[in-house]
Sequence to fold (948 residues):
Amino acid sequence: MQPDRRTVLAASAAFAAPTAAPTAAMAAAPPQVTKTLAHYLVTSRPGDIPTKVRREACRSLLNWTGVAVGGSRHVSVAHMLAALSPFSGKPEANLLGRREKLDILNASLINGASSHIFDYDDTHLKTIIHPAGPVASAILALSQHQKVSGADFLHALHLGIETECRIGNAVWPSHYEMGWHITGTCGVFGSAAACGRLLGLSEQQMVWAIGNAASQPVGLKVQFGSMTKSFHAGRAAQNGLTAALLAAQNYTSDNAALEGKDGWAQALSHGANWSEVTDGLGTRFEAALNTYKPFACGIVTHPAIDAAIQLRNENKLKPGDIAAIELIANPLVLKLTGKAEPKTGLEGKFSITHCIAAGLVAGAAGERQFQDAVVRDPVMIALRRKVTVHVDPKVGAAQCNLLVKLKDGRSLSRHIEHAIGSQEKPLSDAALEAKFSDLAEGILAKDQARRVMDMCWGIEKAADAGGLAAAAST
Amino acid sequence: MQPDRRTVLAASAAFAAPTAAPTAAMAAAPPQVTKTLAHYLVTSRPGDIPTKVRREACRSLLNWTGVAVGGSRHVSVAHMLAALSPFSGKPEANLLGRREKLDILNASLINGASSHIFDYDDTHLKTIIHPAGPVASAILALSQHQKVSGADFLHALHLGIETECRIGNAVWPSHYEMGWHITGTCGVFGSAAACGRLLGLSEQQMVWAIGNAASQPVGLKVQFGSMTKSFHAGRAAQNGLTAALLAAQNYTSDNAALEGKDGWAQALSHGANWSEVTDGLGTRFEAALNTYKPFACGIVTHPAIDAAIQLRNENKLKPGDIAAIELIANPLVLKLTGKAEPKTGLEGKFSITHCIAAGLVAGAAGERQFQDAVVRDPVMIALRRKVTVHVDPKVGAAQCNLLVKLKDGRSLSRHIEHAIGSQEKPLSDAALEAKFSDLAEGILAKDQARRVMDMCWGIEKAADAGGLAAAAST
Fold:
């Protein structure tokens, strides 16, 4: 009369949950993570956020708008549009950098994906979350469905970024090591929180929005190198917006979806440090730690590119002046970007020698310097071949020494302690604008790009934040 | 010059993936799970599936249609509609049991959720996956966008169910134990596979569809007891359909998303037995193992209900005849359904005494017997109080002994070795029809319900499978 093990398990599991839910809620009672977070999200006031932190949100918005416009003509966006636009609803929301309009759910998906295509978006360095994409894509689309003031928009953007980065901190590093692409998995919470705020959710509804979002994580690292990588950022935006819209209609989820038994952290991490979520809400601002990539390639190449650009500009170097180049760097640099003879633009991003050559020749390493034609340019090929890379584990990954030997016998060298774009040496507003202009070139007219940047800087004063989306479309 | 640990990790992780992808593909080269599965999915022919297995797909379809119609008037469906219909696209697809039409992506979500609301859908007992919901909801909606023959429809339904159950087998039980709601997390693959087949994907595109689906798992067990539980089944349908639509436009994902480093199984399980996916494709049919619940409550109560109904029917018992009832059952029965004094219909599902009373009084335990009014009926209350439950670990969870002592002194007893609805004692076609009729009552007219059931039985001969959706709407 003994059933087989599977049958017992099946019966047990099929029934475990309804009894498990209250138990989980009780076990998790002390931290009450989901509820504490929801309470903060619905009670925070725009004026509670310090000026400096609000300014960082403007910088995040400007950077996001630039990368979304820049990515908008990528073939993967065209594929998404072909697949999904036949099913789009009312065309209320603009696609940045494009002429099409879609319903707000589809627009949040495509703008979010577009902004992550070049891997050139903002970075919360503690978690490697790219925070703006999942949040801004969702709330900008939502702002084209209902009128949202610029002040509320910026506040929601801040709250969304704060939410995803705090949850990311709580499960870092085990969550990332398991294989999750943290921008998508935590981004869905940022989107739900920000959209929920703009929808005026009650605390209970915000708990439900976070809970429904918890059931929809997006993104595995295995996808890096495929189109689905940037899909993660957009789908996170769309899922979070969906969760908030459902919660606004009293669609329920568990009250402890983050911390409860059989909840998000149990399934997606090896344990969470919940104080990262619940401590210092309103006084400690993760969103203030956002950084912006100056170069359209991985962070490990940035010290060398920074050094190359500095030496080029200070010495007015020309490719023909250079006899040899030596880089002393952390071993990761060769491990991750050791491609000696890149053939395509994408391969160029994984070639430290190409990155250095770009810095020396163009004084830049934007998307332009990673076009196929640039990688195949004989001047670049020749210069790349003059680079020798020495690795030394004593050199930190954020540092390097670059030595440039000139044909006239001189030797120039530069030590980088913190590369441009790091938290210690943040990108200036002017550099952010230069990056935006570079990304928008050929898509937005110069005066249009200027207008969009001004709108980002002045978003808090805008009567209707959704106007930004129309302004950044073509 | 040592950076802090976080910086190194950040730099490392930001770069790990592009180099990791090829490595992962190499490491996973021997099984080539994703590719092997995709190859089968695009080369299988309808005629390759044995008649008996195709018949099981018809039974799955009929059962799914019934539960979707039955759930369609639940308040959670109304909430979803209120939240999402403002953003729906072209109203091509019917909502079962309702009058509204939505775009196919939204319809797949809502029909899928509707079919899981009563937890009364089909069950693949090895994994506790409810297989039909995520697959049928997606392909039926898709069949209203493009013309799909009934034969192709049934074949796709079979392939989808086969796919999700095989992947579920591969990661069972660790995947479930981590906290995942396996119907949503594996269901997305079933939907992607079935929709991909109907969209005529190439093998490479099918690999991409499976891969994109892998990035969109849905569902945590923490949600059991909330509306988000049934959301999982619908969102899995919608995500799989999305993945297939994207793949049809050559939207790429990794070629080894299931088995690769930082892939699905790594993140969502403690190791996969890939032979469960790749062995015996086309000769071993998991889809043939589908079962259908005869009673609208958890499996652990089914032996006792089965015994109660048998004794009632054979002896024409009336509640007034009964003096006492004793059940000898597995300890799980009291652990999971030990609620002695249920006050609501939902609580009644977790009360073994109510379940037995329902069997004895009504000869049934459908949704009707779990309405609040029935649970509060004095006749039911009185009968419940006559039940004593004895637990014995030597009694299997699939078995029981039920003893009914009558006021006239007689004692009736029944041993159940395999309850009705188990694999050993499957629900008959007639019982499936009775279940359907019960669920459809008050929603579809009797002749309409008859017509829909006939369409399910005869789906293979239908010229246009999408007609089923229109026929089952109001």
